[in-house]
Amino acid sequence: MPNETIVIIGAGIIGLSTAHHIQQHLAPTQSLLVVARDFPSSTSIDYTSPWAGAHYRPIPGTSAQARKEANQARRTYEHFKGLSASEPDAGIRFIEGIEHLEAPPAEYVDGNGVDAAYGHLDSFRHLGGGDDDDGSELPAGVRWGVRYKTYVVNSPLYCAFLLRRIVSNGGRTRACTLSNAEEAFRLDRNVRAVINCSGLGFGDDKSFIIRGQTCLVDNPCSITLTRQIADGEWSFCVPRPLGGGTIIGGTKQLHDWDPNPSLETRSKILENAAKWFPFPAGSEREFNVIRDIVGRRPAREGG
Ligand SMILES: Cc1cc2nc3c(=O)[nH]c(=O)nc-3n(C[C@H](O)[C@H](O)[C@H](O)COP(=O)(O)OP(=O)(O)OC[C@H]3O[C@@H](n4cnc5c(N)ncnc54)[C@H](O)[C@@H]3O)c2cc1C
To answer: Which whole-number Å values give the CA distances from 40 to 23, 170, 174, 213, in the listed order?
Structure first.
C-alpha cells in the first residue's frame, strides 16, 4: 500500500513525460500525483504543449549547454523511434526532414557542431551544391541544406496518450493552480518529492516567453521542411500524424505577450509555404485554414 507521494507540477509535454517515466521506477510504497492548472483536454495560451507543431530539428552549437541538450535530444530520438513503432496511436511518426538555410549562421558552418547535433539522425546527409549551380540539390537562394529522418508529433494527441497511460497505471491527477511550488508538499499526506514542470515556473527571473504564431491547415504534406530566410526569420511545415492537418509556421518573438494572431503574419506564413513547401499540386495556393495559433514557449536563460 503506497504511503509516499511523488508530485509532478504540470501536465504539458515535460510534466507528462516526466510523470510517465518516473511511474515506471516507483517503489511499491510510492504513488504519483500530477497537479496542474491545465490538462490535455483544455486550451489556454499559457498551456503551450497542445500548440506545438511539433517536429524535431537539431540545434547545432559547441557550448556545454548545447552539448548537453544534443545528448538529451539524441536519447529522445531513440525513445520516440521505439514509441512510434510500438504505439501507433500515440501520434508520433518518423518522416523525411529537410532544412534549407539561406544565410547559415556560424554554428551551421562549423562541421564539429553540426556533426555533434545531427550525427545521430537516420539517413542524415548534407545536400550538395549551392550558389545556384546546375545540378544542385539546393533550391535557388539556399546556401546550406540537410536531409534526415525525424519525428513529427500530433502534440494534443500525444499529451492525451501520456495522460491516459499515467492514469491507467494508477497515477492520480488534480486540477489546481498553485501560487508557489512549496504548496505541492501540502497536497497529500506524505509528499516525498515535488518535480516542478510548470513551464515558466514560479517567479523565476531567468524564465521568459517566446511567442509563436502558426497556422493549422488541413492541406496534407508528407515531409517536414524548415527554411531559414536571409532576414533571419524561419518558415516551416509540420504534418501532424493521424489526420491532424499541417502546421505552417511561424514566428519566434521573445518577450512578446500579444495574445492575438496577426493577419499580416498569417498571410506571410502562407505565402512562404506556397513558395517553398511540397503541398500536392493544386492545393499549394489554396490553404484551408483550420485555425490560427498563438502560443507562448516557456524559455529560460541557462536552460
Ligand atoms: C506555436 C508553437 C510551435 C511549437 N513547435 C514546436 C516544435 O515543432 N517542436 C518542439 O520541440 N517544440 C515546439 N514548441 C515548443 C513546445 O511547445 C514547448 O517547448 C513545450 O510545449 C513546453 O512544454 P512544458 O510542459 O514545459 O510547458 P506547458 O505545455 O506550458 O505546460 C506547463 C504545465 O504547467 C502547468 N502550470 C503552470 N503554472 C502552474 C501553476 N501555477 N499551478 C499549477 N500548474 C501550473 C500548466 O497548467 C501546464 O499543465 C512550439 C511552441 C509553440 C508556441
So the answer is: 19, 18, 13, 20
- 110 and 123 together in one domain: yes
Q: Cα–Cα distance between 49 and 58 in angstroms, integer?
A: 19
Give yes or no: residues 29 and 81 share one domain.
Answer: no
Q: Residue 149 belongs to a domain with what CATH number?
A: 3.30.9.10
Residues 74 and 187 in one domain: no
Residues framing ligand 1 (Cβ under 6 A): 9-15, 36-38, 47-49, 51-55, 177-178, 197-199, 212, 214, 238, 250, 293, 295, 297-298
- Residue 34 CA to residue 15 CA, distance in Å, equals 8
CB half-sphere exposure, 204, CA atoms < 13 A: 18
Instruction: Quote ipTM for the complex.
Output: 0.99
pLDDT higher than 70, residue 293:
yes
d(CA 34, CA 39): 10
Identify whether residues 40 and 174 lie together within a single domain.
yes
CATH of the domain at 40: 3.40.50.720
Question: What tens digit of pLDDT does each residue of 114-172 get?
Answer: 988 999 999 999 998 755 556 689 999 999 999 999 999 999 999 999 999 999 999 99
**Residue located nearest, by CA, to atom 35 of ligand 1:** 10
SS3 label, residue 253 = strand
